[in-house]
Amino acid sequence: MKRKRVTQLFPFLIPVRKTQRKLFFYIKMYFDRNHYAKAKSPEFLPYSIYETKSKLLNENTGFDMKYQENKVFNLRLAAEPVNGLIIRPGETFSFWQVVRYAERNERYKYGLCVVNDELITVPGGGLCHLSNLLFWVFLHVPLTIVERHPHGIKDFPSPDEDEPDSVDATINEGWLDLKVRNNTSLTFQIEISFDESFIYGRIFVDQAEGYSYEVINRDKSFFKKGGKTFERVSVCRQVIDNKSQQVISENLLYTDIFEIGYALPEGTVIEGEEDGYDD
């Protein structure tokens, strides 16, 4: 049995703990010698090299849909400081360095968030939808992932069945960030936009390149552990030559293991108890 944290025993200490963590979180970044991307431009760079979209509302959460609508409100607030952001050579993008002041004029509404492995409603819930989208975009350009954290539990099916599994990036201000560094000689720029149904992510670059990326799953499987169902899946990235459309290379990026918190489709093969995994 896991030991309970102090804030679980004494919930009234949670606001104090959050303030403390955020203070040290940003102090650490101030002194870490990274050059964080902060400049924005209303004019976008000449070459669009990748774009994607994600459905805004998920009807499969089991919660009142008002929390999905609140999520969209929160996403629009958080996307404003990200839209148009430029990542120059040698600069690092940090989700929280950019988004930390998004509430300056309007406050976040209550949305869904996983806290202590439980899906609850909190102010600002749903911002992982934006970090997930950004991570997916970053996987398709030659930026270096510096910090990324997977969700420990997948509470409901993805609304996009064609999206590979485990290409998410959970964030929690004061604890978890999404960071990428530009170790290239190229300059990148992010665009985030919305319509009634989707959030769109696009990334621009100042010079045309002769190749692109494709992100795929390998070795996907499900297994039981302690009465719970887990998924293990590897995420690989292929480099594609734009002229021939041939795969130049394929590299394993990472392998994730996470709990499945919903009923899998009938007929899904689930292996028996696995001794080699400690949750």
TrEMBL record:
Superkingdom per UniProt: Bacteria
InterPro entries with a match to the protein in the record: Glycopeptide_resist_protein (IPR052913), Vancomycin_resist_VanW (IPR007391)
PANTHER family: EXPORTED PROTEIN, EXPORTED PROTEIN-RELATED
Protein name (Swiss-Prot/TrEMBL): Putative vancomycin resistance protein
